[in-house]
Amino acid sequence: MVRVYRYEQNPLITPSDIKPYHEGFEVIGAFNAGIAKYKDEILMLLRIAERPISDDPKIVKAPIYHTDTDELEIIEFHRDDERYDFSDPRMIRKASHSQEIEYLTSLSYIRIARSKDGRNFTIDEKPFLYPSNKLESFGIEDPRVTQIGDTFYICFTALSPLGIGGAMVSTKDFVTVKHHGMIFPPENKDIVIFPEKVNGKYYALHRPSLKSIGKPEIWIAESDNLLYWGNHQHLISLRDGMWDSGRIGGGAVPIKTDRGWLVLYHGATPENRYCMGGLLLDLNNPAVVVARSDQPILEPEADYEKEGFFGDVVFSCGAIVEGDVVKMYYGVADTSMACAELSLEEILDFLTYY
């Protein structure tokens, strides 16, 4: 068993704490933050989801950012339009092709929240990362932050009508940003880079979202320069009838331990109940799986995890390790941010070894 200590202050950040960046919009989510330690602060790189306010319940609005003209267009849909499926509040689908997303109902970008104690955060007024090219016109989501030397590499999901892929930027000071473009093309997401080279290679986890043959499972790739990735290998599969039977993906940046690389990953059921589990990879060859958790180490139990914009979701993009304490920051119900502390040794002992 892994004991979980949820902070009394949870949720740490909610949409009501965020002033909208766009006029006429409302913040519906401040969640799935990448985590970094910089100088004497803990930084949350929050995914902020804003949607245009609709005064008519029969009208659904969809924002799309045109990077060539620097304009945000709002498109209106009538709920009685039979050409579209409005059943998922996050998106507008074509009714004749149930898996085809036409538009999103919100635009996401990245804003930084800062804390000295890891519990009480102040939030920057302006975005840190905002859509910057046509591959990001539907927004940018779910960043992961990997520090290598004095550089922080930030991978995030970029969305546009052209698809969903993994993009990367880097920074040394969280002010000046260098854009590296899309490093994993559509359909792909959940890009997580390891914090150091292994036998001379960089490694990254990714999750192809296959539309024909195959399933949404975790793969691993390697690189000489963090930009061009190859030797892609399938890492772990879905497990029928278990907590991770619907889809899986990398979560926090892998943690180096004496037993292997600990990956805190998310898994969901076909009913979209998201939990966090553990995966252990070989120290010298991360493509080799050493152990995996049969049960979640964190699952939706608190009210703020079970109820929200999209309930029954815990989803971590970042953690901080201090001795035996793993401080897992995680999104709850696709709405807010929370934090829980777990024992590193208890997580490692909880895994099933092969």
UniProtKB/TrEMBL annotation:
Keyword Glycosyltransferase: yes
The keyword Signal belongs to this UniProt entry's keyword annotation: no
InterPro entries per the UniProt record, alphabetical: Glyco_hydro_beta-prop_sf, Mannoside_phosphorylase
GO molecular-function terms, A-Z: glycosyltransferase activity; hydrolase activity, acting on glycosyl bonds
Pfam families: Glyco_hydro_130
Keywords of this entry: Glycosidase, Glycosyltransferase, Hydrolase, Transferase
CDD domains from the UniProt entry: GH130_Lin0857-like (cd18612)
PANTHER family: GLYCOSIDASE
Stated family: Belongs to the glycosyl hydrolase 130 family.
Protein name as it appears in the record: Glycosidase
